[in-house]
Amino acid sequence: MSEKRVVRVAAVQIAPDLASGAGTVERVLNAIAEAAGKGAGLVVFPETFVPWYPYFSFVLPPVLTGGEHLRLYEHAVVVPGPVTEAVGAAARRHGVVVVLGINERDHGSLYNTQLVFDADGSIVLKRRKITPTFHERMIWGQGDGAGLHAVDTAVGRIGALACWEHYNPLARYALMADHEEIHVAQFPGSLVGPIFADQIEVTIRHHALESGCFVVNATGWLTPEQIASVTPEPKLQRALTGGCMTAIVSPEGAHVVPPLTQGEGILVADLDMALILKRKRMMDSVGHYARPELLSLTLDGRPAAPMHAAAAPAFTPIPLAGARTDEADAAASDADGTARQRVAVLRGPAR
Questions:
Q1: Which residue, 55, 106, 209, 224, has fewest beta-carbon neighbours within 10 Å?
Q2: Does residue 80 have a cis peptide bond before it, meaning omega lies within 30 degrees of 0?
Q3: pTM for the complete prediction?
Q4: Which DSSP letter does residue 136 get?
Q5: Greatest distance between any 2 Cα atoms in the chain
Q6: What is the pLDDT of residues 290-349, one digit of tens each?
Q7: Which member of 104, 129, 136, 280 is catalytic?
Q8: What are phi and psi of 22, to 5 degrees?
Q9: Quick count: other Cβ atoms within 10 Å of Cβ 40?
Q10: For the chain, what is the total number of helices (H) and then of strands (E)?
Q11: Rounded to an integer, what is the distance from CA 123 to the centroid of its chain?
């Protein structure tokens, strides 16, 4: 942590392709190349950006969301699969770390999943949002504690949470206790209105101060045409505007560069990693400022599984009715011989 180094990062505010998951992936690959061309070593995308965030679930009643929900299944990402191979190859080709939000399909369920690709293209973290928020609970399943930890990457130690997970202080504390250096926050953007952008800013700046780390946050963007495609109702369309706060924050809670709140773009900033130690010298929330003998966190980091199978006894094949096996023939022969002997005894000696 005391090593003097500078890390260049990029936070991408971008619109998905609401008609095609493949189209959104193409936008991701182009943005990775553009950010890498600007010298970024870390590229961060918005929450569930591939294929798109389920904006429809925020403005439509559940009874009318079936078709869009099924379409989300059709375009969702299987891990590993073609999408992760393409993004991993781009990370490797450009030598960058990529954090991507996806709708992950696992058989019959969807999950809000964050993927961290290291600069060699490997996936070093796959975590699922532990509690989907409000309307999202009709769309995604719940994640587990297996992803609530930081990972070492080419740019430093990264932790990640999505959207209102930042309102779960114990989830944030788990990453603090694992000594994250760069915290990646992902929000949907184009949602709720300006108040959402204000709340995002307060949340990520506070986390930076409390964790003593950098925060790189990316939010999505919808064009007016895309908003109209989600709902034709003007009143509901207003609920799909604002809420954008793509930002990069220092361990001292300050914006490293001005945030992006409108339109598409890529924020790029150089992170002076020495600021982490400067902040923690004064306040290390999981070190000298902690009181673990009074307050501590217990984390169940086991992956959740729907079935735990105990060892079963060896199965003995059951022969078909009327079929004779060698063992059965031998047993039958022994049984027949014993029966004949008993009959002979009962009859007595021949006369």
A1: 224
A2: yes
A3: 0.88
A4: G
A5: 119
A6: 999 999 999 999 999 999 888 877 777 777 765 555 555 555 555 555 556 654 554 555
A7: 129
A8: -65, -35
A9: 27
A10: 10, 11
A11: 11
Superfamily covering domain 6-282? Carbon-nitrogen hydrolase (3.60.110.10)
At what angle are helices 169-177 and 194-211 packed, to 10 degrees? Answer: 40
The yes-or-no answer on residue 244 being catalytic is no
Tell me the mean pLDDT in the region 212-238.
97
129 flagged as catalytic:
yes
- Report CA-CA distances (Å) from 189 to 53, 163, 185, 203, 264: 9, 10, 12, 14, 11
What the block records as the tokens of 9 is: 């990062």
Strands 151-153 and 156-162: antiparallel
The residue length of the chain stands at 351
Contact 132, 109 (CB under 8 A): no
- pLDDT of 12 over the 80 cut: yes
Known active-site residue 210: no
Contact 247, 204 (CB under 8 A): yes
User: Which entry of 163, 210, 213, 280 is annotated as an active-site residue?
Assistant: 163
pLDDT given for residue 1 in this prediction: 42
* pLDDT tens per residue across span 36-63: 999 999 999 999 999 999 999 999 999 9
